[in-house]
Amino acid sequence: MEHERAVHGRGRVRENSESAAEARNLTTYRGVNARELGISPDTDQLIHDSFRGVRMCWTQHTIQKMVDKETVERHAYTLKMNKLDQNLVKAYLNHVSEKTVEHKLGKRELKLYTNSGFNGIRGQGWNSMPFKHPSTFHTLALDPSIKKTIINDLDRFKAGKDFYRQICRAWKRGYLLHGPPGTGKSSLIAAMANYMKHDIYDLELTKVSHNQELRALLTQTSEKAIIVIEDIDCSIDLTDRESKEKATESKLRSQLTLSGLLNFTDGLWSFCGEELIIIFTTNHPEHLDPALLRCGRMDVHIELSYCNFAVFKILAFSYLRIEAHEFYPLVEEKIAYGAEMTPAEIIKILMSKVDTPDKAVSNVISALDAKFKEKQALRQSQSSQAEKEEK
After folding, report:
1. Which structural domain, as residue segments, surrounds residue 165?
2. Which of 104, 143, 192, 205 satisfies CB 3.0 to 4.6 Å to 235 for a cystine?
3. What's the pLDDT tens digit per position in 34-57?
4. Which of 107, 139, 155 is where one domain is finished?
5. pTM, whole model, 2 decimals?
């Protein structure tokens, strides 16, 4: 007969689908801010688990206690395992704790935060609302190779806690999304948030009056968050660093500066949270100070450009539910010749003809033709202007 060691504790053990399936009776519940129902075994049922090849056995009990002269029920759990494997108890309980936190974060309702102007009271710098954007990497109209690169990078980042600690760097990752308007930058951010199960903090720099306020906002963000600064080139002047450094000390105290933003991205204040993602978006990366864009601040630069044929097919399937069409070779030809349309422009056409796929694809071809002619006319005009200037 095996010797067993029992470990007792209180709390809730989140079971995986296989363990829950072993239970004869299950209880469902919904936690605060949870998006899905939870499942828990009833009292006195055995639930088996394994860790590093060792079999574990959990039993849930109900304990009655007197609190303020009233009987209160508490849930407790007993863990049984082979006595020879008792050296794994601490590691296993740490593993359970980490998985519980991970599970709770994955099931909770994500939130979208925006800064409303700092009023000097800690915790009042952000307003929030439920984040319900449906964008995922599965539905995102993005070049498959770029999509794969982003997913692989996010996976490495998520699993990199020990690595970042080993190299003494903040556990954060910076992404620069750049390209023309309508190329899907906001949809990509939403897909990243849903994939990572991170809240989004939409930081509006025009509402930040000075560096100290930026620091206060940063310390109010949660761990496992995505901080987004959209159209960063339009928010504040971040190109003339030398003139800012020559400004008077009083002026520096009264405004947000480039140095303050740099310290936010990779200085001491960047260590305030863990598993932090910072995303800048811009239509004109050439307008940004190079100091903002170097590795360690913006680690990954992603260009979101006009539709290629692969992206068009994703859009056509999403909106028209067609995987192939006789007009597709013509669409591919127009794009290959240099006709440029953003995903937003193509979506507008597809949305107007969702019930008539033939007409929708035909209208896209006509629009690509018009765009190509506009491009040619612009080139001819620029060439003529250059010739006049030379004369």
Report:
1. 111-303
2. 205
3. 556 566 666 667 777 888 888 888
4. 107
5. 0.73
